[in-house]
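Board notes (copied after class):
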Amino acid sequence: MVCDHCVLVIKNVLTELALDASSVHMGEVDFGNTTISIEQLQQFKHKIELLGFELINDKKTKLIENIKKLLLSCCSKKLSPKNLNCQNILQINYTTAIHN
């Protein structure tokens, strides 16, 4: 999910499946303390794949997605000061990208 429209589409799928997410952000759905069944997860996965999205579970792919989100955020909101390039931004935020 790389834009507000994508987030809205995912929220609609969650509503359609009566899944209660505590938050939906770019690239992430958080169910908080709510446990969802394997069947619910499979239904969610199937619905989002039909819409061109994918469910990411492995650590390497999550790291890549977090780095992409960070770079998109820096570019779209112009968060990076003039003296910082992409490499510096990634080094500063590397810990955050790994743990999210």
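Comment from the instructor: The two ends are 15 Å apart (CA to CA). Helices lie at 4-16, 38-50, 59-77, 86-99.
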